[in-house]
Recover the amino acids of this structure.
């Protein structure tokens, strides 16, 4: 599969992974802090959180989630008490001095604060300092103690079980944002998920759909040892808490950037509005832009013996099929049916019109882009089997052996079940996102006759025997092993895969 020239690839480091490496001195410090400071801090943090609960519970009694009422004197007093208690809790957790730059605008002037990068549950610190509302899933209301504190700030709850949840959430954000400051400001993390702060991923459009001015807010954790990052692949929640409470001091910076007022074009195009704010925040943070989104995390975190090596072209393909509405309708049954139809074609190459007919879609610019991704020879013709393999790969990125089996069904001989070497290479090129796969080493390692053919069971058995099949056995263009001198296992580049 080739990348489109219409959009440059800006993937870079995987933002959904976080690996902690400690020096011996750091390990000794953590060991000492674990038996001295950590228990005390944990006890104090727990105490202040429990102390905050009755205040939040009392203030929430009899209050409507949908109607704003005047803030009475006793609720203002409780609000002040909660801010003091929560600040004391963070202080006990090692966040002694929180540096705040810039000035937060009034809710009547700016109803929405957009905060990035979102990388930890410690990002709750600016929420507790401002008592802004947030957008959160309904299930968070059921979390013991913390759920009451969340309910107190009157969040916009997302009902994930409701098929119409996204529309209702956007409507509620618009209703509050257009109240003229009667509702508290809404603090939104437009990335929609936690990353490792290596770059800003694509912003969701929710905060920008109302078309009203927003105030960007950037967060920084300038600590030497990053113990706060909590993302999809890396230390778990308790380990993050333990390591952070073991640090003598946890610095944090919150910067309020100037208010961003959208142009008429941005008001009509929330995606453009979101992207321009993202660029502004990336510049302030001195971070690169990363063309990944929350929906791309599974592809970028694929695992297994045939994990995706270079996911840039597959991510572009995934974004295009999502735009066509094909991704949401993909099921195991749909993949099997498309594979059956593709096998019947016996390698017949399809032009754009035939490709549209195969998918039962009209010819559009997006469909043309998808078709061009598989036009390897530049003659306007594609092998539909390549499309099915790519769709299966992005649909179940961590189940590569299922995709391999599906691919073999489309290519295998009816008599022997074998697939030619060059066809296996083509399959692996799409699944791994690489080019010029060479399988001669694999065939030389087999005990059978040199037929340049292989069944699925033979390849599956070989991969089972070589768990590091991609790194140690397979050959392809720009493989790190090609730059090594000596035996492959002595090469420092062998681990330079997509997750490093």
């Amino acid at each position: 599969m080739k990348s489109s020239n219409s959009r440059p690839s800006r993937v870079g480091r995987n933002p959904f992974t976080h690996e902690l490496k400690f020096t011996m001195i750091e390990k000794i410090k953590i060991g000492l802090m674990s038996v001295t400071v950590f228990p005390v801090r944990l006890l104090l943090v727990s105490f202040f959180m429990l102390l905050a609960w009755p205040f939040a519970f009392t203030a929430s009694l009899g209050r409507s989630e949908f109607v704003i009422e005047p803030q009475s004197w006793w609720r203002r007093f409780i609000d002040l008490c909660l801010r003091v208690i929560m600040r004391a809790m963070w202080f006990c957790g090692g966040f002694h001095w929180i540096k705040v730059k810039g000035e937060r605008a009034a809710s009547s002037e700016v109803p929405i604060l957009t905060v990035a990068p979102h990388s930890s549950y410690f990002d709750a610190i600016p929420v507790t300092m401002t008592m802004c509302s947030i957008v959160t899933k309904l299930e968070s209301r059921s979390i013991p103690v913390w759920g009451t504190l969340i309910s107190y700030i009157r969040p916009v709850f997302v009902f994930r079980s409701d098929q119409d949840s996204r529309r209702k959430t956007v409507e509620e954000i618009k209703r509050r944002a257009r109240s003229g400051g009667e509702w508290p400001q809404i603090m939104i993390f437009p990335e929609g998920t936690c990353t490792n702060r290596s770059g800003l991923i694509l912003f969701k459009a929710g905060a920008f759909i109302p078309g009203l001015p927003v105030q960007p807010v950037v967060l920084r954790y300038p600590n030497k040892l990053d113990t706060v990052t909590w993302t999809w692949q890396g230390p778990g929640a308790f380990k993050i808490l333990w390591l952070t409470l073991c640090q003598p001091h946890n610095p944090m910076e919150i910067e309020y950037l100037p208010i961003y007022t959208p142009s008429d074009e941005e008001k009509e195009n929330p995606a453009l509005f979101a992207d321009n704010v993202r660029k502004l925040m990336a510049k302030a943070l001195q971070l690169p832009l990363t063309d990944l989104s929350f929906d791309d995390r599974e592809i970028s975190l694929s695992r297994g013996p045939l994990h995706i090596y270079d996911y840039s072209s597959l991510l572009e393909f995934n974004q295009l099929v999502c735009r066509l509405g094909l991704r949401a309708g993909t099921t195991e049954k749909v993949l099997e049916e498309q594979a059956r139809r593709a096998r019947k074609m016996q390698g017949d190459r399809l032009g754009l019109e035939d490709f549209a007919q195969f998918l039962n879609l009209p010819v559009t610019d997006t469909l043309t882009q998808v078709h061009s991704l598989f036009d390897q020879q530049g003659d306007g013709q594609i092998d539909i089997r390549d499309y099915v393999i790519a769709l299966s790969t992005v649909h179940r990125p961590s189940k590569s052996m299922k995709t391999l089996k599906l691919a073999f069904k489309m290519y295998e001989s009816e008599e022997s079940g074998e697939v030619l070497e060059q066809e296996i290479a083509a399959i692996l090129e799409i699944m791994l996102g690489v080019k010029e796969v060479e399988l001669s080493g694999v065939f030389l390692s087999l005990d059978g006759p040199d037929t340049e053919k292989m069944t699925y069971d033979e390849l599956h058995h070989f991969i089972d025997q070589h768990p590091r099949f991609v790194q140690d056995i397979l050959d392809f263009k720009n493989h790190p092993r090609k730059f090594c001198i000596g035996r492959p296992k002595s090469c420092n580049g062998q681990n330079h895969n997509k997750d490093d």
